[in-house]
Amino acid sequence: MSEPATDLTNKLPADCEVPAHIAIIMDGNGRWAEQHGLSRMDGHLEGRNAARRVIEACAKLGIEVLSLYAFSVQNWQRPTPEVEGLMELIEMALREELQALVANNVRFVASGRRQDLPQSLQRVLDEVERDTAANDGLILNLLVNYGGRAEIIDATRSLAQQVEAGDVSPADIDEQLFAGHLYAPDLPAPDLIIRPGGEMRLSNFLLWQIAYAELVVMPVLWPDFTAAHLLEAIEEYSSRQRRFGRVPKGDE
Ligand code: FPP
Q1: CA proximity to 94, closest of 112, 75, 114, 110
Q2: What's the pTM value of the predicted model, to 2 decimals?
Q3: Statement: residue 5 has pLDDT above 60
Q4: Of the four listed, 17, 35, 151, 240, which is most buried by Cβ atoms within 10 Å?
Q5: What is the structure's pLDDT at 250?
Q6: Exposure of 38 by Cβ count < 10 A (0-12 exposed, 13-18 middle, 19+ buried)?
Q7: Per-residue pLDDT tens over the stretch 179-191
C-alpha cells in the first residue's frame, strides 16, 4: 500500500450494493508463474502485489472486512521449499506493509492455527495485530494455517471445555453461541466470495461463515487481479438477489 485511502466508489454505479465483507481465495499463482516461465515462488511474490492492490482498493471503497486465504492447513503438503518460501513471504510482507496499514487505518487480524507456524511469523502476526488494533477502517483478516474444518473442530473443542466445566449446558448451544467460538467471532459473515483462477470449488474456506455468501469465480489468475476485477465482482454481487432461504422480494 502506498498512499492514504481516497474514494473509489464513483467507479461503481450509484445504486450498486457494496458487500460489507469480501473474502478471496487467492488462486492461480502457480499457473501464472508457469505461463511466464518463472518459479512458483515468483508467482507467489506477484500474488503479494495483487494482495496489496486489493487491500488498497477495499480501503478506498469503504469495505468493512477483507478476508484473504494466504495458507491453508493442507498447504503443508506442498514441497518444503515452497512452504518455507510462503512462510517467509507472508512474514516479510507484513513487516514491510505495517506502516502502510497504519497509514491507511487498516486493522489487521489473523485467523488460523497460529501455534503451528514458525515462531518468527507468530511474532509478526501478534505485532501487526497489536500495532493496528486501534484502527477503525478496513479490517484485514489474513487466513494463515487456516482450514474451515479445523476451525469448526477448534470451536467445538473450546465449547466442549465450557460444557465440561459446567459453564454451558448442551441445551443452550445454538448457532450464535457456536459462532462465538470461531477464530474471529466479531467479524460479520462474508457476503461475497471471490475465487480467481477459475476453479469452481471452496477448498475448505470459511465453511461455517459462508452459508449464505455469494460466490463469484473469475478466470483471471490471482497475480493479474486488479481493482477493476474487484469492481467487476462487486457489480456481479450487486446484481444477485440474496434470499437467505426466503421467497423472492415481492412474492411474499
Ligand atoms: C494459491 O495459488 C496461492 C497460495 C497458496 C498462496 C497465496 C499467498 C500469497 C499470495 C501471499 C500473500 C501474502 C500476504 C501477506 C497478503 P496456487 O499456488 O495454488 O496456484 P495454482 O493453482 O495456479 O497452482
Answers
A1: 110
A2: 0.94
A3: no
A4: 151
A5: 77
A6: middle
A7: 999 999 999 999 9
- The answer to whether domain 17-238 has CATH 3.10.129.10 is no
Which sequence positions are flagged as catalytic? 27, 75
Mean pLDDT of the chain: 95
Query: Above 90 in pLDDT, residue 245?
Result: no
- Residue of 1, 29, 101, 200 best suited for mutating to test ligand 1, as the one with most atoms within 8 Å of CB: 29
